[in-house]
Amino acid sequence: MRSSRRKGRRRAGSSEAEFVYVVGPEPNGPSGAQPDKAGEPVGGIGPIVALEGLARDYETPAHTVEALKGIDFSVERGQLVAVRGRSGSGKTTLLNLIGGLDRPTAGTVRIDGSDVTTMDESDLVRLRREKFGFIFQAFGLIPILTAAENVEIPLRMVRAAVNDRKQRVGMLLDMVGLSDRVEHRPHELSGGEQQRVGIARALANNPPLLLADEPTGQLDSRTGRSIMNLIKQLVASEGVTAIVATHDSALIDLADRIVDLRDGEIAADTG
Ligand code: ADP
Ligand code: MG
């Protein structure tokens, strides 16, 4: 799988003999990028995520909710990090801040060395497109589109050429074990299969970081485990980093690192 990933990261119009299927920006960015050597994590130098004093308050008419109370932590490349905590502990708030979907009340978020907290909206849009693959609890597929068309969406957004898109989509669906479900619509797929499509879509533009908020929350325990296993395999084979929020303790033995969130603070971290 790794070799096909490397092919996918060449730009259209390059003179490489191999066929090219992604025209998006290089996922490891123009600064600090390293060549993608087999067996090495994707991206630049230093941690992919670095959080300092990260706090998020929600103001409600009645009171202020301190959802995150000043979190410091960094994520190294090529790891599967589980963020565990019961409902309300701040997992979604944390992932939204890392993914540039929300802004902190205090503190900083650095992604691949860049301070996200000072970026304007258009920079954030670009950052989200280049750096992150989002995986959702409810899969987030478009019901009227086939599996292949759903996976193709991010490739259309970066205006990949049609032949490149088809080839990349085929490769991605194969990677998640769905080459025989390409033309199925979401309602013709099981929950686990829908989440595999969601994972393929998240990987479409070769992001260095996968962010998954309770990706197994709507699946039975066996299917949930196979999805977590798939994410683990992709971390190993594709060199991506994954941060997975879960309240399911049964899955966390698959993680390289476990961060326990409790009431907006890190209560434990296997580091
Ligand atoms: P988790 O994902 O671990 O269940 P969340 O990050 O969703 O936790 O929520 C953390 C805390 O912040 C909870 O107490 C929740 O009620 C509160 N919260 C989350 N979003 C909002 C919001 N938009 N407005 C007010 N409070 C919120
Ligand atoms: Mg949540």
Quick structural overview:
This protein has 271 residues and is α/β, with parallel strands linked by helices. It contains seven helices and ten strands.
Explain what this protein looks like in three dimensions:
- The chain is an alpha/beta fold and 271 residues long.
- It is built from seven helices and ten strands.
- The strands form two sheets. The protein has a six-stranded mixed beta sheet. A four-stranded antiparallel beta sheet has the order 2-1-4-5, with helices on one face.
- Helix 5 crosses helix 6 (191-202) and helix 6 packs parallel to helix 7.
- The protein is globular.
- It starts with a helix and ends with a strand.
- The structure holds adenosine-5'-diphosphate and magnesium ion (MG).
- Adenosine-5'-diphosphate (ADP) is lined by residues 58, 60, 65, 67, 85, 87-93.
Secondary structure topology:
Layout: H1 2-8, E1 49-59, E2 64-75, E3 80-84, H2 91-98, E4 106-111, E5 114-115, H3 121-131, E6 132-135, H4 147-157, H5 162-175, H6 191-202, E7 209-213, H7 221-238, E8 241-246, E9 257-262, E10 265-269
Parallel strand pairs: 3-8, 3-9, 6-7, 7-8
Antiparallel strand pairs: 1-2, 1-4, 4-5, 9-10
Helix pairs in contact: 4-5, 4-6, 5-6, 6-7
Bound molecules: adenosine-5'-diphosphate and magnesium ion.
Helix % is: 25-40%
What distance lies between the first and last C-alpha atoms, to the nearest angstrom? 28 Å
The number of helices is 7
Number of domains: 1
CATH class: Alpha Beta
CATH level 3 topology: Rossmann fold
Nearest-integer average pLDDT: 86
The H-level CATH homologous superfamily, spelled out, is P-loop containing nucleotide triphosphate hydrolases
The portion of residues forming beta strands comes to: 15-25%
How can the largest sheet be summarized? 6 strands, mixed
Unreliably modeled segments:
1-39
Give me the Rg, rounded. 18 Å
H-E string = HEEEHEEHEHHHEHEEE
What shape does the CA trace take? Answer: globular
Name the ligand types. adenosine-5'-diphosphate, magnesium ion
Please tally the β strands and state the result.
Answer: 10
